[in-house]
Amino acid sequence: MEIPENVKKRLSIPADEHFYAGHTACQGCGASLGLRYVLKTYGKKTIFTIPACCSTIIAGAWPYSTLDAPLFHTAFETTGAVMSGIEAALKVKGYKVKGEDGVMVVGWAGDGGTADIGLQALSGFLERGHDALYIMYDNEAYMNTGIQRSGSTPYGAWTTNTPGGKKHFLEKRHKKKVIDIVIAHEIPYAATASVAYPEDFIRKLKKARDTPGPSFIQLFAPCPTGWRSPTDKSIELARLAVQTAYFPLFEYENGRYKINMPSPKKEPKPIEEFLKYQGRFKYMTKEDIEVLQQWVNHEWEKLKKLAEIFG
Amino acid sequence: MEYKPIRKVVSGNYAAAYAVKHARVEVVAAYPITPQTSIIEKIAEFIANDEIENIQYVPVESEHSAMAASIGASATGARAFTATSAQGLALMHEMLHWAAGARLPIVMVDVNRAMAPPWSVWDDQTDSLSQRDTGWMQFYAENNQEVYDGVLMAFKIAETVNLPAMVIESAFILSHTYDVVEMIPQELVDEFLPPRKPLYTLTDFDNPISVGALGTPNDYYEFRYKLAKAMEEAKKVIHEVGKEFGERFGRDYSQMIELYKTDDADFVFMGMGSLMGTVKQAVDVLREEGYKVGAAKVRWFRPFPSEELYELAKDVQAIAVLDRNFSFGQEGILFNEAKGALYNTDAKPLMKNYIVGLGGRDFTVNDVRKIAENMKAIIDKGELDVEVDWYHLKR
């Protein structure tokens, strides 16, 4: 449908569509929404690298593609390396890379392919300083493989290989702080984002595009299938993750931290708010929830301090 | 321009680096591993001295990433190169499938080195032969000259059939040993090897392509068939490019198996790589001693030169296959392949497998003589003593 010019002017999200209908994501999939926003922001001059993850399937089987942009499907652990090679080749071929009129090289990988098996290639990509953007879409487990825990799975979450049994549950580790590992590489730009806040996400995508050097965005993307949550609650859950400070929105720019919460003065909601609707947390006792709350509080205080000192 | 070779005394590794320079490679992604390292060091030195200009050098964090980055670069349209050895090649294994499956003409030098444990940095072909089924072409160089020539030809062949190619040289025996190499002036290399013209690249933003997508059971099979056909096509292209190389530069590579004094031979020694230099020298000595022997050096292991092997095998009484490698639970890999290639033909020479030189064990002219004596006895008796002979074993 053609959008009238007067309506276009009122839109805060780009009207362009380069993510086709007919993709094969589940209902309520946060990742597919994220991919759509990336394509809206960057348009056709984007080269994607996608490793083994849900998006391999979402993008479609040969000879189809959901993406109106070039795409290299690669092996699980190689996103950072393949995008490094693409960026190097673009430079040698004389393309402008990054910036509004440049080619955007985007790595689009899930949390398993980033926090776990792909961490080495991500680190290599970051420390070598390639002009490209790595987006980790975080649905907190290996969803394409059938809901197994990843390093990004939170404390207490049920997955198929960390089930909650009659007596206890197996997932005793807190969520791996991938963005902290990324920031330790002292890259120019890193940020968290959420599919519940598309304007914020798009602003960050533009900043990543306009900042030379490697950039990284960790995008919170609910998965109703893996979270055992209703498909119409994905955006609400993504919003609650931010409002409870479970997944705070912030930016790291050349050594400076900036928290960008929608309502900065409001105190975070209790973590129970985020846990509701989600079957993966249903067997957690009050004590278990308190453990998670303590972790959230600690991480939130840490981030606030960082923003205060290095803001 | 008249061809006047530039003679340089270089190691096998430096010969590879010069070939990379002359091939105007655009992206080199690599990781250090003994004894490959000096290839990349030399290339880096060329770049630091502005002796190569239009190139991107990506010092990656592992061999797996070296191949992944080469794949990204090649899919974007660049001429890409990397080099590795042994454990590094094994680490790359997954991505070798990816390069071939995506039909990317990457060229890699593998410095043949024995697999650990026990740790060994010395020559052995098991690392590269373990990659037999990845869809990569494999060229085994006998000497430093063949390393240089092999890299230049490999790019041309790879870019014609859209398959990746491996040029393989021996650890230390070639990689670190200096020898005279005739190099080709840049202008003439440019005529022989013009810039790459890829069929598809990731930079066609108006007609975006998706590489390596999911292939359903309805399509996967045909993808594999096309790869198989490309390997078959490669035999013709290898012949043509090898012939052209000979016409332009005087060294003919049109045959996938180089034959040495085999015309009237009763039996021949067959093998690959640097050990065949020793064998050829031994053939000269043995001929003076009255043996009617020859040497058959398999240059290309993938695609496998079955037809050329048949032409050789139908006229000899026996073949001694020298394998600097082993497939556990069976036999030497070249032996296994050669027997298989002849099974449905009328060429049935006696074939015996000698396992030699594993992990850098010396293999000398005298060893070839002992093998010749053994072969002579077998032929006289008309049957094998053993099929697989661990020749050097300390008993």
TrEMBL record, chain A:
UniProt entry keywords in alphabetical sequence: Oxidoreductase
Top-level taxon in the UniProt lineage: Archaea
A Pfam family: TPP_enzyme_C
Family matches, as InterPro entries: PorB-like, THDP-binding, TPP_enzyme_TPP-bd
GO biological process: organic acid metabolic process; sulfur compound biosynthetic process
GO molecular function, a single term: oxidoreductase activity
Annotated Thiamine pyrophosphate enzyme TPP-binding domain residues: 66-218
Protein name: 3-methyl-2-oxobutanoate dehydrogenase subunit beta
Organism (species): Thermococcus indicus
From TrEMBL, chain B:
One example GO MF annotation: oxidoreductase activity, acting on the aldehyde or oxo group of donors
Domain Pyruvate flavodoxin/ferredoxin oxidoreductase pyrimidine binding: 19-241
Domain of life: Archaea
Biological process annotations from GO: carboxylic acid metabolic process; response to oxidative stress; sulfur compound biosynthetic process
Keyword vocabulary terms for this entry: Oxidoreductase, Pyruvate
Pfam family, one: PFOR_II
Domain Pyruvate:ferredoxin oxidoreductase core residue range list: 265-368
Matches recorded under PANTHER family: PYRUVATE-FLAVODOXIN OXIDOREDUCTASE-RELATED
Quaternary structure, from the entry: Heterotetramer of one alpha, one beta, one delta and one gamma chain.
Protein name: Pyruvate ferredoxin oxidoreductase
GN (gene name): porA
